Structures are given as structure tokens and as C-alpha cells.
Amino acid sequence: MRDCAHSEARYYQGNTLAGILFIISAPSGSGKSTLVNHLRSLVTDIDFSVSYTTRAPRRTEQPGREYYYTSPAKFEEMIQRDEFLEWALVFDNYYGTARRSLTDAQAAGKDLLLDIDVQGAGQVREKIPDAVSIFVLPPNPGELAARLRNRSIEEGSLDEQEIGRRLAKARGEIEAYRQYRYILVNDKLDYAVESLTAIVIAERAMRQGAQPDPETARMMQLADKCRQANATERLEPVLASFGLIDMHATRA
Ligand code: ADP
Ligand code: 5GP
After folding, report:
1. Is a pLDDT exceeding 80 seen at residue 2?
2. CATH topology of domain 21-49+111-251
3. Which ligand does the CA of 155 lie closest to?
């Protein structure tokens, strides 16, 4: 993290155009929350939407910080009142983004980042087609299992059944990568953090349209490598490890 942390001032973009909606999705355990937490400390003028969920808080989570925790009945009332921009059932629990997150960010003149699953991302893309979508991938199933297990241990609740469910779901979720503009393989954390930061900076710079300074130009190049069309070399080994493509066939 040293490189990214040391560049903090460099990433400060005090005078950006308002209103980019970023969506980030990943199979559970890929490291998405870790990446987003780093991004929060590196980039200003971006709000992070706090979702509603009916799942119980983890030991390390605080109400209103990671999620607003609510009952299924209250969540269903919010659905009836059309208060959600999107919502989905994930692992038998409701998760949803309140419309208010978007209007608050717009009123404050800020960008907004939604950390949501692939179903929710599809709903948002339909409503807001120019949303910038980012898909985070773990390097391979073994590493994903290890991360899920480590997180469970950190939280003091090793639930092998829950880990198994999340692993089984990952393969299907990964197939949705095609619907995303950017692909991030989270193997080396520093590089993944810098790439995510670069995507935010590049999208802002593209909307501003001004001649980029050298550092912004470097970040734009880095972001460009993460565009889905340019990420094949990084992507293929991951897809192969999850049994989604045959590397020998694609290379033949
Ligand atoms: P997600 O939000 O995608 O469910 P988390 O951010 O909670 O995943 O990360 C799951 C676990 O993996 C955590 O214990 C985290 O510290 C660890 N982790 C995240 N990124 C990396 C990485 N690049 N290398 C090794 N471990 C990582
Ligand atoms: P977790 O329980 O691990 O925090 O999250 C499980 C999954 O729910 C993750 O894929 C996460 O991105 C997704 N999620 C979190 N908030 C929302 C939301 O508001 N809407 C949708 N559709 N998914 C969400």
C-alpha cells in the first residue's frame, strides 16, 4: 500500500465535474470491500452508498457504516413505497440501494459508488446507462476460498456451510463479467487499489475533456488496461481456473 498511500495528495481532485455513478461488483470474498475502503482514503468528492440489508451485522460492522440493518417487513415496506433504486435477494437476504443515496450525492455535487451484486448492477444499468461498471475478480477458486475462510476467522465465526454457498455462487457470478466496462483482478492488493483509483480518475478526466497532466495521463493509461476489451490476458487465466473457458482451446 505504500505507493498508493504516499500518493494521496496526488489523487485529490477538488474540482471535478459532479455526477458519475460507479458500480462495483464481485463474488463475495474477492476483496471488493477492502478495495473500496482504500479508495475512500485516496479519492475525494465521491460518496459511498450505504445499502439496506436484512442480513445480520458481522462482528466488525456498525449500523449505518457498512449497511442499514433492517427487518424483512420494513424492507418490503420500502419496496412498496418505491424507495429503492434497485434491490435484490442475495444469499436469501434482501439488499437494496435507496434512491436517496443518488439524490443526496447529486445535491452535494459528488460522484457516487454503489457496491452491489450483479442483479442490482443490471437494474441500475437499465435505469442509468452511462453508469461506470467495474467487476472485481479473485485470482482463482483456491484463493477465493482462503479469503472467505480468513475473513470468517477474523470475524470469529467460521461457517463452512456459508463459505461453501458463497464459493458455489461465485462461478455463476463471474460469468456476468461481460456486462461490466472494467475488469480488476485482485491478486496484488496495491496494484488493484491503484487500478481502481485510476478508473475513477480517468472517468473524471474523460468527462472534463481537458488536456490531462502527466500523472492523470499515467492513470488514464492504467485504467485503459482494465477496460474489458484490453483485459483478456489478465482475465483468461482466472476464467480458466473457474472452469469457465479452456485456455488450450482459446489459444489454439
Ligand atoms: P468482499 O467485500 O469482496 O466480500 P473482503 O474485502 O471482505 O471481500 O475481502 C475478503 C478477505 O480477503 C478479507 O480477509 C481481506 O482482508 C482479504 N483480501 C482482500 N484483498 C486481498 C488481496 N489482494 N490479497 C490477499 N487477501 C486479500
Ligand atoms: P455481504 O453480505 O458480503 O456484505 O454482501 C453480499 C453481496 O450483496 C455482495 O455481492 C454485495 O455487493 C451485495 N450487495 C450489497 N449491497 C447491495 C445492494 O444494495 N444491492 C444489491 N443488489 N446488492 C448488494
Report:
1. no
2. Rossmann fold (3.40.50)
3. 1
